[in-house]
């Protein structure tokens, strides 16, 4: 896999089969990867470095926004300066990636991905995690070959997922937006889906509270198995 993602065909399953069935675009952090404890731990370690008070999981889920500078605005009462943002971003990622090494996949994730592949259904992975860090961790979990593509962020971390979604769909070559359902844990996943004419299902196991997800206006579920079932209904 290069820095532009990948097109996988480990068992002749995917190539040429993108024109039927629902195509799922999975989010990574907080969706397939059960990393919310790592996120909170890294957030508070970074906050300590920059003199902010620690935050609880409930408060984090209440305030979290993408792009992430908007999250810091909620905490600070103003947007961070460019210099402050660079310090905050570096501190968070330094602490997060150490913790992410011991995070497991969300409950049922590996089985769902394998089952869809066995059924000849397509799926891909799009994350705002840096691409060069995303690919190795996906590979270590043994699921890289379940996806048509694995794409992480290649630019600045001060924007949301919408434009990354555009590039991801172009690279999928022929999967129509009306057949695509995005499964993620953040309101920004639904925004990115709408930006390209796709649908979305949001999962409560990650960065947002159920209440903050429900205002987005798309289905909200408490398990990945339910997310897949609802996604199939949406694209039927």
UniProtKB/TrEMBL annotation:
Keywords tagged on the record: Hydrolase
Keyword check for Hydrolase: yes
Origin superkingdom: Bacteria
SUPFAM superfamilies: HAD-like (SSF56784)
MF terms in GO: hydrolase activity
Keyword Hydrolase: yes
InterPro entries: HAD-like_hydrolase_sf, HAD-like_sf, HAD_sf, PGP-like_dom2
Record protein name field: HAD-IA family hydrolase
Native source species: Streptomyces gobitricini
